[in-house]
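#help-structures

NK: newbie question. if I give both the sequence and a SMILES, will the prediction place the ligand too? trying with zinc ion
OV: yes, paste both and it writes out the complex. here, I ran yours:
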Amino acid sequence: MNENQGGDRQMFEGNWTCSSCGAGITQLPFQPDPAREGGLVCRDCHKQRMANKPRNDGPREMHKGDWKCAGCGGSITELPFEPDPARADQLKCRDCFRK
Ligand SMILES: [Zn+2]
Ligand SMILES: [Zn+2]
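OV: that's the protein plus ligand as structure tokens.
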């Protein structure tokens, strides 16, 4: 009989205010630290914050082109950034860049 296993989390009831939108918060999935009650956010604002967070785990956008490595003279067809045309002759391939 483990009805609670993996089910609803325990919710803490109270009367707090969202520091972001000012809405009332009556339930929290954790016991808030009284010293940090001024920084609490409601579920909606929390969700929004998570959605706006820059993600580092996605694939980087690669810029395709045809450049020449200033180090070994090899061709470069992909770069993780848009190269400045004025500095295109200073680009380095991945191998030379590591050196
Ligand atoms: Zn809010
Ligand atoms: Zn190179």
